[in-house]
Amino acid sequence: MSTTTVPVSDNSTSQEDNRLAYAHGTVMAITWMVFASTGILFARYGRLLRIGSKRKVLGEFVWFQAHRLTLSVAAFSTLLGFFLVLAQATGSWVSLDDDGPYVVAHSILGIMIVGFALIQIWMALFRCHPISRFRFIFNWLHRSVGLLAFVLSIPTIFLIISTLTNYQSGLYIVMSIWTGWTVFIFGLFEILTYLNQRNSTSSSEHTYRTDREYELRPSSSISNNNTDSDQEDRFNQIKLILLGIYVVIAIALVIPFIILIWQQN
Question: Basic and acidic residues composition bias: which ranges (predicted)?
Answer without folding.
Answer: 206-216
